[in-house]
Amino acid sequence: MDPCWLFLFFLLMARDGSCNQEEICSKSMINSCSDCIRSGPFCVWCKKLNFTKPGEQEAVRCDTRATLLKNGCEDEDIISPENSMTKDKAEPLSDSFTQQKLIQLSPQKISLSLRPGSPETFRVSFKRVQGYPVDLYYLMDLSYSMKDDLKNIKELGAQLFAALKKFTEHAQIGFGAFVDKTVLPYTNTNEEKLQKPCDEDYQQCQAAFGYRHVLNLTSSEREFKKKVNQQFISGNLDPPEGSLDAMMQAAVCGDKIGWRNSSTRLIVLTTDAGFHMAGDGKLAGILTPNDEQCHMTDNLYVQSSHMDYPSVGQLATQLSKNNIQPIFAVTKEVVKVYQELSKMIPTSEVGVLSADSGNVVQLIERAYRRLSSKVTLTHGNLPNGVRVSYTPLCAKPGPSGENEGVCDDVPVAHEIAFNVTVTVDSCMTGESFTIRPLGIKDTLTVSLSTECDCKCPEQPTTDNTVCSGQGQVTCGICSCNDGYVGQFCNCAVGDKDEQSLRIHCHKPNSTECEGRGDCVCGRCQCHTTESGSNYYGKYCQCDDEHCEKFQNKLCGGNGKCICGKCECNPDYEGSACQCKKSSLSCLAEDGSECNGRGKCKCDRCECIEGYQRPRCLTCLSCPKPCRTKLNCIECLGFQSGPFKKNCTSSCGSIIHWSMVDQLNFTTKECEQKDSQDCWVKFKLEQLTGVDRFRAQILEKRDCPAPPSVVAIIAGSLASVALIGILLLMLIKVLLYFKDLKEYKKFENEKKKSKWAEADNPLFKGATTTVANPFFTGE
Predict the structure, then answer these.
(1) Do residues 328 and 139 touch, judged by C-beta distance below 8 A?
(2) Which of 35, 222, 401, 710 is most exposed, with the fewest beta carbons within 10 Å of its own?
(3) Residue ranges in the chain modelled with pLDDT below 70
(4) What 3-state DSSP class applies to 142?
(5) Sequence-ordered alpha helix ranges (H) in 201-298
(6) Per-position DSSP letters for 652-707, written without gaps between them
(7) In this structure, how many other beta carbons lie within 10 angstroms of the beta carbon of residue 186?
(8) Are the beta carbons of 416 and 393 closer than 8 angstroms?
C-alpha cells in the first residue's frame, strides 16, 4: 500500500477516536459478574477457578480484558457480553408506485440487545418512490383584505392540478377557509355585522366564521373549481387571523379532510396577516386551552368561540404526528413572521405571495421541490437513558447530530442511507422507540433490551473443597447453599439471618468493610493493598499507604504513615511532615509564642478563632474590652457596680490594676458610664494569653451633681397651685357660659309670649261697690 494512503488512513482513524480510545473499567462494590458487567462497557469478568489470591476480594476478577490477561486469566475464561442486532422485518425498498405495497424505508423492525455504555450502529436506507401520491389542502384566509386573491384562486384550479401532475399522476386537492373567532375583540358581534362583516358597498359577503372545511381532497378539477367558486369573502376586526386554529383542525380531522394513508401531505396556507396563538383567547375571556382534538360539525369548527388558539408547539407536534408538511404562502409584509414560525415547525417552507396571489402556483411548485428533495431522519420520544445519533451517507449530507440526520438535494428514486448509533446508559427491558423520515408515514421500530447479567453455565469441578462442600461454582465464584455464607461458603450461619451478621461489618452510614474486605461470619477479613501490604482495623478502615504527600513523598519522607495520618519524626511537623520544628517567626516581643493565643506550626502561628496573624496580636471580631471590662473596673476601683460582692472571682482576667491621677499607658483610653451614672476613664493593656489585662483607673470620676430637694418641692407646690387656679378659672368660665345660655333662652321665650286682650267673664275687679238700702242720700 502507498505510504501516503496508509498515513491518511491512520489519520482518519485517529480523528474518529477508534485508535486512541483508552479502555477503563471504573468499578465499585463488585460482588458478582453481573455487578461487573453493569460497571462500564470495558469491564469484563474472569471466571477462572482460584483466580483470586488469599485475602483478595472477588472484585479483582472484574477489570479490562488487557488487565485480566496480564494477571493470568485465560481468554476463554473471560466473560464479556456483546451487543447484538436482529432485523425482525426488512422488506426491500419499492422501485415504483406501481407496486402493491410501497416501502420507502428499510428495515422496518429491528431488535437490539445492548450492553450499557456500549454503542451499536446500524444502517437505515431510504428511497422516495417515483410518482408518490400528493395530497394538497389549500387553506385560505377569507378576511376582507384577501378579496382580490379569492378572485384569482377561482381561476387557478387547473394550474394547481397541472403543477402537481409534474410530480405525480396521483394528486388530490382539497379546500378550506378561515377568518377568526366570532367573538369580541376579534369580530364585531353586532347581529347585522355577524351576518355581513364586510363593507356596506360589498354585496357578496358571507357570515363571519372561524374555520370551515369546504372540499374534501379530490382529484376532480371540476369539483374543486365548483366549490371554490361558491366561496365569498368575509371579515373581522383585528389584523391577526385564526390560521393556527384552522391548521390544527385540518391536521387532526384526517377522516373529514380525506388524507390518504400513503401520500405526501401538504397544507398550503395563504394569508396577508399574522396569526393568533395560545393565550390570545384571554382577550375574549376564553380560558379553556386547546385540546388538539377534532371538533368539526357540518364542516364547521364548532369550538372556535369556546377554546383557545393552539400554541406553536402543539401545532408542530400534530403536524409531525400526522406527517403533514406546511407551505406558508404569505405577503411580503408578514414573511418574516412566518419565517420565524417555520423555524419551529420541521419540514415547512415559506414563500412570498404576490398582492393578488397570482404567483401561488409557482410558489407551491418551488416549495414542494425543496421539501421533497430534503430528507430528515429523526426519532420519537426516547426511553430514559437512551441516546441516538445520526450520520448521513449521501452526496450532500447535513451535520451529524443526536436529534436528526439530514440529506439535501436528494433526487426522486435515489437511494440514500443513514448510520444510526444507539447507546443505552442503564439496564432496561421491553422498551422501544420509532425512527422515521419527517413527512413520510414509513417508520422503523427499534426494540431494546440490555445485557446486564452474565450467562454463566454451571462449572463442574471434582474438587469438592472449592466451596467447602456447601455450594456450587458459578462464574468462577461460589454460590452457597442455604445456611452458609462467605467467599468459600465456609461460614455456617444456622438460623441467623445473613444480614444480621453483616451489620457488624460496617460503621453507620458506611459500606461493608469500607469496600476493602469481606464480611465473614460477622467479622471483616481485610484484603491486601496493591503494594502487597494489608488493610487493617475493625472495619478495614486503615492502611499505611494513603497519607498526605509532600514533594511526591509520603509524609514528606520525614515520618511514618499510620492509618492514613502522618506521625512525624521528632524534628519535623505538619500534616505531611513537610517542615522542621521552629518557632522563630512565632515569637512575640515578650518572648512568648504567638502571644499565647495560638500554636506555632511550621514556623507560623495558627491563631485561635478571631485573632490575626502573624503573631495573634489583635482580634478584629472580638467584643471591645472597654465595654466588657467596665463592671470589673468599677468593682476594683470604686467598690460598686454589679460585681461588688464577688469582685475577686468575677474579675480574674484583670491581673494587675492601679488607681492613678493620670493615665500613661500607650493604649486607647476608655470612657464609660458606670452603674452610678458616673463617667469612668481607664486604660487596658493586653497581656500574653487570652483575656488577660493590666488596667490603669483614673481616681476621679465625673459624676453629675445631686438634685436640689428645696427646688423640687417648691416647684411641685407651685405647679399644684397653678393647676388648681387654672381649674377654678375653667369652672368659673363654664358656669358663666351656662348662665348666659339660660338667660338668652329666657329672653327668647319672653319675646314669643302674647297676652290676651278680651275680658274674662269670670274675672272680677279688685274694687267692690256696696249700696246701703237704708241710706236716703240725706
Answers:
(1) no
(2) 710
(3) 1-22, 27-28, 54-56, 98-100, 200-203, 356, 457-465, 486, 494-498, 532, 753-771, 775-778
(4) coil
(5) 221-229, 243-252, 254-257
(6) TTEEEEEEESS---SS-EEEEE-TTS-EEEEEEEE-SSSS-EEEEEES--B-PPPP
(7) 25
(8) yes
